[in-house]
């Protein structure tokens, strides 16, 4: 197999050409590293160019799995492609994103294995603690995927109090200003690093730290990846409900959780990613809880 072969999809609605090869021994049509027949699995992601994916593909090949990796440039298409049968499985999202997709579309895509959590953190230039932060305005990402989580980071830090506790995706309007120690200023996610360099506290998505020359380990606070509040942000392998017991796809979970891939993920995230091993049943329970809350909002 020619490793590092993947298709990039640049726009929603345009999928890899050719028919999907089902996951099963009778679908094998290539040869793995061992010289034995390989099972072909088509997987979608938004980060195929990373080192972790390179190692993942190599380890899958050793296990006799020929990965056909489809890389998307947006976050909306991979679930649609999976639902429509263009993919066997995808790996790009956390459970909260999946719950919003399922509730919004009426779909029933399901997680079968966990990968990691990347904590969301509060950074404050030239500070190594929260001392003196009371009265400051904290910049937070204004996008729907991160704003609620950022506010909950401040809740966990004891800096913000919500009018109603336990909200999964609180907005600035849900903050009780009189009981909070800081205020928030929503800005475009890339601008949080600009605010940081101006000397003001900011919650910054891990994606923007490296390009802004910010040490991921210099945060003054981050959410606890083992807490219940962090569960919505567990990243997961996702399949159509009818494929939840597919052994070939389940093997991919074990490969991702192997030492080789785990080390590559840690290197890429500069040690900020936290490996998570949750069973499919546990992930489905979390997903169901998230979907129920969304439906009752």
Automatic annotation (TrEMBL):
Top-rank taxon: Bacteria
UniProt xrefs under InterPro entries: Lipoprotein_NlpA
Membrane topology: Lipid-anchor
This protein's GO CC annotations: membrane
Keywords for this protein: Lipoprotein, Membrane, Palmitate, Signal
Subcellular location per the Swiss-Prot or TrEMBL entry: Membrane
Signal peptide range: 1-22
UniProt similarity note: Belongs to the NlpA lipoprotein family.
The name this protein goes by in its record: Methionine ABC transporter substrate-binding protein
Species, as recorded: Corynebacterium meridianum
High-level lineage: Bacteria, Bacillati, Actinomycetota, Actinomycetes, Mycobacteriales
């Amino acid at each position: 197999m020619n490793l590092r072969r993947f298709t990039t999809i640049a726009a929603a609605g345009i999928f890899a050409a050719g028919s999907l090869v089902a996951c099963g021994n009778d679908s094998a049509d290539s040869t793995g590293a061992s010289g034995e027949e390989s099972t072909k699995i088509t997987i979608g992601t938004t980060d195929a160019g990373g080192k972790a994916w390179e190692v993942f593909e190599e380890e899958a090949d050793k296990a006799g799995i020929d990965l056909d990796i489809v890389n998307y440039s947006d976050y909306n298409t991979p679930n649609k492609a999976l639902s429509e049968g263009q993919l066997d499985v995808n790996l790009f999202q956390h459970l909260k994103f999946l719950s919003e997709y399922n509730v919004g579309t009426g779909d029933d895509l399901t997680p079968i294995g966990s990968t990691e959590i990347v904590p969301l953190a509060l950074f404050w230039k030239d500070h190594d603690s929260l001392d003196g932060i009371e009265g400051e305005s904290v910049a937070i990402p204004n996008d729907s995927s991160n704003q609620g989580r950022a506010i909950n980071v401040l809740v966990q830090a004891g800096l913000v109090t919500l009018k109603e506790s336990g909200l999964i995706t609180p907005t600035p309007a849900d903050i009780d200003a009189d009981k909070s120690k800081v205020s928030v200023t929503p800005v475009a996610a890339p601008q949080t690093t600009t605010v940081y360099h101006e000397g003001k506290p900011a919650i910054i998505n891990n994606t923007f730290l490296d390009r802004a020359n910010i040490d991921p380990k210099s945060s003054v606070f981050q959410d606890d990846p083992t807490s219940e509040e962090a569960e919505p942000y567990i990243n997961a392998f996702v399949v159509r409900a009818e494929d939840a017991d597919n052994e070939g796809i389940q093997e991919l979970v074990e490969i991702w959780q192997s030492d080789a891939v785990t080390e590559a993920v840690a290197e890429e995230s500069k040690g900020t990613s936290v490996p998570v091993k949750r069973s499919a049943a546990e992930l489905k329970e979390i997903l169901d809880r998230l979907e129920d809350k969304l439906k009752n909002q």
